[in-house]
TrEMBL record:
Recorded GO MF terms: benzoate transmembrane transporter activity
Transmembrane regions: 44-77
Gene Ontology cellular-component terms listed: plasma membrane
Protein name: Benzoate membrane transport protein
């Protein structure tokens, strides 16, 4: 089996690996989009992480988490009902 993968071009092996990960990606996205209150934060986290941006030498996975947590905190704060003052 190893000899077979060594003989196959690298781009084909990378394509096979990408196809193998489609199931995990789709189930992860479905789980992130399940809760309506967390949907926007999940999308922001995914897009930031998938963008591949890098600031100050720190990769997109970290910035995706930071953006997602910040978006979730802002959305929860905005949706919280305002209590009337006595």
């Amino acid at each position: 089996m190893t000899t077979l993968f060594i003989a196959i071009p690298e781009t084909f092996v990378a394509s096979l690996a990408g196809l193998a990960l489609l199931g995990a990606l789709s189930s992860g996205l479905a789980g992130a989009m399940a809760e309506e209150s967390e949907r926007e934060a999940g999308v922001i986290t995914f897009l930031m992480t998938a963008s591949g941006v890098s600031f100050f030498g720190v990769g997109s996975a970290f910035w995706g988490l930071i953006a997602g947590v910040a978006a979730y905190a802002i959305l929860v704060w905005r949706r919280k009902p305002q209590r009337a003052a006595p």
